[in-house]
Amino acid sequence: MLPSVDDLLESARVVALPLRTRFRGITVREALLLTGPHGATEFSPFVEYDDSEAATWLAAAIDFGWGTTPPLLRDRIPVNATLPVVTPDRVPEILDRFAGCRTVKVKVADPGATLADDVARVAAVRAYLGPEGRIRLDANGAWTVDEAERAIHAMAEFDLEYVEQPCATVAELAEIRSRVHYMDVPIAADESVRKAADPLAVARAGAADLLVIKAQPLGGISAAARIVAEAGLPVVVSSALDTSVGLSMGAHLAAALPELQFDCGLGTAALLAEDVTDAPLLPHDGAIEVRRIDLSAQLLDRHAASADRRDWWLKRLRRCHSLLEG
Ligand SMILES: O=C(O)CCC(=O)c1ccccc1C(=O)O
Ligand SMILES: [Mg+2]
Predict the structure, then answer these.
(1) Is residue 39 part of a domain?
(2) In a domain, 97, yes or no
């Protein structure tokens, strides 16, 4: 059952959290936190998303705070380190924050960067990790098929676990997947799952070897778990650069899945300079814990968004709530 908008507004807090390093073009992450009968929950669609997309994120927030949590099969989730687009000299400093992580996801194909920049960053990650570490790339759909082929060919020598969303469309993913098959580099779909009208289309088309699954954009833990079951592919549960509260939602999703072959992208609390709890879900020994998050009243005050931004988020919450009421 959908809580009333007044129920939601009663506990709503809006924060603006500084990042340690620019990520996805932002240096401050805004989020709206709510408290339901099960505890703290998060509504944090990116600010440029329209209401119809953001409403799905609200359904997820409500599901985590008010809905039913599925049975949990594990109490810790192995996670990858996430490396933003930085110069190679900053690689050790950033990766040191992801204690014990054996896998690094490297952001590549930034509009301002060249292939040589990406190669240099990936080389620095391989040097940091040693031969046993796993390296995956995420291009956020930025390459054409030819650019992707050239880039993957150039970086395959670093031994790639997989490449996430090298190109934008399902058809392009299918094409690049067949072109790099001989190099044994698997292709993962992210935007083609979480921003698609049909999140299962990419799996049905055989256009990816694995799926990146995010709880908020897919409408919450139960909805995401159903998509995983229907897709029949291995998955990587990841964050949307959430606060520890959203990461906790992701950790509960990961803990509920029957199989978890890959390290999950839920270590991103390490990219935040500030969080909303005194016990953030940071990686320890390469994993995060599966637990609920207690909000810190002090941190919520200290990082409260400006009156303007709070107003913007509360209005967005109201509009998304009416969309869910339909
Ligand atoms: O998967 C990870 O390691 C961290 C999450 C991440 O990269 C991400 C975070 C916010 C928005 C988009 C993405 C993405 O995977 O493309
Ligand atoms: Mg991605």
Answers:
(1) yes
(2) no
Pocket around ligand 1 at a 6 A CB cut-off? 24, 80, 82, 105, 138, 140, 190, 238-241, 265, 268
Is the interface score ipTM higher than 0.95? yes
pTM, rounded to two decimals: 0.98
Q: Is 138 annotated as a binding residue?
A: yes
What is the torsion angle, in degrees rounded to the nearest 10, for the CA atoms of residue 105, residue 138, residue 237 and residue 36?
100
Query: 190: annotated binding-site residue?
Result: yes
Structure tokens at 178: 């067949």
Q: Is 315 one of the annotated active-site residues of the chain?
A: no
Within 13 Å and on the Cβ side, how many CA atoms surround 177? 21
Identify the domain containing residue 63 by its residue range. 5-70+297-325
Look at residue 111 and tell me if it is in a domain: no
Closest-CA residue, ligand 1 atom 8, reads: 240
Q: From CA 99, how far away is CA 81, in angstroms rounded?
A: 9
Average pLDDT of adjacent 10-residue blocks, the chain of 326 residues: 96 98 94 98 98 98 96 98 97 97 98 96 98 98 98 98 98 98 97 95 98 98 98 98 98 98 98 98 98 98 98 98 96
In a domain, 302, yes or no: yes
CATH code for the domain of 314: 3.30.390.10
Ligand 1 atom at shortest distance from the alpha carbon of 46: 11
Number of domains in the chain: 1
Q: At what angle do helices 244-256 and 51-66 cross, to 10 degrees?
A: 70
